[in-house]
Design a protein that fits this description.
alpha+beta, Ribosomal Protein S8, Chain: A, domain 1, 2 domains, three-stranded antiparallel beta sheet
């Protein structure tokens, strides 16, 4: 059994309407979730396939970090899918710096975050003081590198070029993308 702590305001999302999301996670990951809505603690107990059960704490953590349940459940698509978190707070000197760095990651009208998703095929969510990533190892690495470049103060143009390059590398290697919101291919 593993214990995961998630923010209070994400418990409703984890449970879902009438417990729907919780039941879906339990069924697909073959686990039992015991959610303490008082303190945000979630006990994850494997009841079926232990390999699937290993992904369940990451699914709960991903929902806690701002992902929609559908995106978090992508972790079960294949054993290579990863969930990673970049701590924005660790790169910031103070509250204002934190706000500025978070703004750099989101971009004007959310464009930078969207481009990270479009060009890598990973799901990217910025919530609180973290940037969460769900995707295949190469996708997660590309987003993490781009996020770290932005946090270190790299110009957005340079980061976009880096992402384009990674996009072309992955396309060349035949990596499959789960979506292209802009309709490009």
């Amino acid at each position: 059994m593993q214990h995961v702590k998630i923010p209070q305001d994400r418990i409703g999302v984890l449970i879902g309407e009438g417990g729907e999301t919780m039941r879906e996670i339990e069924a697909e990951a073959e686990v039992r979730l015991d959610i303490d809505s008082e303190n945000g603690s979630v006990a994850v107990e494997t009841v079926g396939d232990p390999v699937l059960g290993l992904k369940a704490p990451d699914i709960v953590r991903a929902i806690g970090r701002g992902f929609a349940p559908e995106a978090a459940l992508r972790l079960l698509e294949d054993e290579m899918m990863l969930f990673d978190v970049v701590d924005i707070d660790a790169a910031a000197r103070n509250k204002n710096d934190m706000k500025r760095k978070k703004g750099r990651l989101i971009g004007e009208g959310g464009r930078t975050r969207e481009l990270m998703e479009e060009l890598t095929g990973a799901d990217v969510v910025i919530y609180g003081s973290t940037l969460g990533i769900i995707g295949a190892p190469q996708q997660v690495d590309a987003v993490r590198s781009a996020a770290e470049m932005l946090l270190d103060g790299a110009p957005h143009g340079a980061v976009y070029s880096f992402l384009e390059e990674k996009h072309n590398e992955m396309k060349h290697q035949g990596m499959q993308y789960h979506r292209f919101p802009g309709g490009q291919s």
